[in-house]
Specification:
alpha/beta; ProC C-terminal domain-like fold; 270 residues; 2 domains; Rossmann fold
Length: 270
């Protein structure tokens, strides 16, 4: 689906790198170009990913690419879209990973008929275990969605959603890795507080989260059922769970997703 296309990245940050890594993992000769304003970052990308073309200016990459991936911050959207407008037409597919910037906003900034697909990936894409949601803009075709899915499937799981659901995706999986990292850090700190060395505590905390996630994925069971299997009557686990409930653990997680989703809406001016 994508092997014959030129794929251009505007922005060479972590998410762009994750996608590049995924594409080169399956096809080392993929035609890729990255536009990045940082000279240090350009040098790093050129050295780390042989075969990709690295340039400074976004309009050059936009003119070269068949698929253009906007891997920039939402605050840069207005200036970047204005810069690339002359190079973008209905013959090109524009893919945006900007949080909170709707497809209609992008379409209005470019020529009529521009094909836009919005994407919300997350940072585990860097190690091939990402969670990505995609949705079509007004002019995007089913084939465009297939193309974008084939790109991001190389970085992990891909799901299709309606655009109205993208703020919720941003709050859940887009920001979610940060919540998990914070939980692992807290779990490790708790082990140290109770007498474990930092090295041992960190290893146990990480493996506990990895193991629990893999168990959930491989069994297909509801999380509550697996939790019940660990929770003996009058035992240690129920005592710990009681403490989490008193601290509104689940409610706090839900509040965090709510807050991140609201911020996504604020970025889009909703």
């Amino acid at each position: 689906m994508t092997d014959s296309k030129h794929i251009a990245f505007l922005g060479g940050g972590n998410m762009a790198e994750a996608i590049i890594k995924g594409l080169q993992r399956e096809n080392s000769s993929a035609a890729l170009m990255v536009a990045e304003i940082s000279n240090e970052r350009r040098t790093y990308l050129a050295k780390s990913y042989p075969g990709i073309r690295v340039v400074e200016h976004g309009d050059q990459a936009a003119a070269w690419g068949d698929v253009i991936i906007l891997a920039i911050k939402p605050q840069q959207a207005t200036s970047v879209l204005s810069t690339i407008r002359p190079a973008i037409g209905p013959d090109k597919l524009l893919v945006s990973i900007m949080a909170g910037v709707g497809s209609a906003t992008i379409e209005e900034a470019l020529e009529n008929g521009t094909r836009v697909v919005r994407v919300m990936p997350n940072t585990p894409a860097l190690v091939g275990t990402g969670a990505t949601a995609i949705c079509a803009g007004r002019n995007a075709s089913p084939e465009d969605l297939d193309c974008v899915e084939s790109i991001f499937a190389r970085t992990g799981l891909v799901v299709r959603v309606d655009e109205k659901q993208m703020d919720a995706v941003t709050g859940l999986s887009g920001s979610g890795p940060a919540y998990v990292f914070t939980f692992i850090e807290a779990l490790s700190d708790a082990g140290v507080k109770n007498g474990l060395t930092r090295d041992v505590s960190s290893k146990l905390a990480l493996q506990t989260v990895l193991g629990a996630a893999r168990m959930l994925a491989e069994t297909g069971e509801h999380p509550a059922k697996l939790r019940e299997q660990v929770t003996s009557p009058g035992g240690t686990t129920i005592a710990g769970l009681h403490s989490l409930e008193k601290g509104c653990f689940r409610g706090t997680i839900m509040d965090a997703v709510d807050a991140a989703s609201r911020r996504s809406k604020e970025l889009s001016g909703k």
